[in-house]
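Entry 14. Ran structure prediction on the chain below.
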Amino acid sequence: MESHDTSTVRARPEPLRAVPVRHPGRWVAVAVLAVLVAMFVHLLVTNDAFNWSFMVDKMFRPPIIEGLLRGTVLMTVSAMLIGVTLGVVVAVMRLSDNPILRGVAWLYTWFFRAVPRLVLLAVFGNIGILWSRIEFGVPFDTQLGQLFGIDNLQLRLFGFSSRDILTGFMAGLLGLALSEAAYMAEIVRAGIQSVDEGQTEAAQALGMSRGQLLRRVVLPQAMRVIIPPTGNETIAMLKDTSLLLYVPVSVELFFQLDAVGKRTFQIFPMYVAACLWYLFLTSILLVGQYFLERHFGKGYGPAGRARLRLRGMTAETGGGGNSGTVGPA
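Output, structure tokens:
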């Protein structure tokens, strides 16, 4: 018998046809959005209530620009500087081993986070009712004099009339800054607690004091966590300056725009002008926040961690020649 070798040849499979997944819902959403955008643009162009020529003519007048610079911008910068500084102090008190400091810091954050800013500004706007004069010197001097039999003892160095020092701008600044400090305290506390405890132990082993540890080790690393919410708080502070209308603070952007609208009976165009001004200022702050986050975020994220690993490998191999290259064997 002859045996025939039969070789079986496997048929080559046909190439797969990749059929893209269809998303009809996306196109429906795009069509709906396009119609809504077209309707909004049509409203802006055709509705006479906007009165664009009147708005553009009034929103750049000197009182408006003065309110923008001296009121909104100056108040935002001043309130944030005081709020951030005081917030760091309160955050350190919250993390202190002293129970009295922790309790005082907790009470501070509890009160100023619980009271709405509008109510707080209304209170500070009328705080001059409590004192006709604000004086500095030995506290309880009159009571001490009565205790020792001295009538009308005055141990006060100097003082001011409450009307002179508690102006509308100062009352608004105190209300916004003290309220902001409570929120910044929680942000800073979260940032400090995000730093690994090993960093603190290593710094203490090197003999650093608590102040040096905070300035040189903890805060620089905590900035990566602190910066994003601080940027958001700054933007919120910029918008909350419009609440100064109720103190009132006359040298302020929204106060001036509102006054022009009521004087000319063109309230709506002036409110739209206020929206445009706040959009412009917020956009500038968003750009600054982006670059700050990128600066303090160096070394973090996938790309940053990869660069740090590569530097570590280069340092371990001496950093020279082909020994420092990373690649397949």
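Strands lie at 133-137, 156-161. Will compare against last week's run tomorrow.
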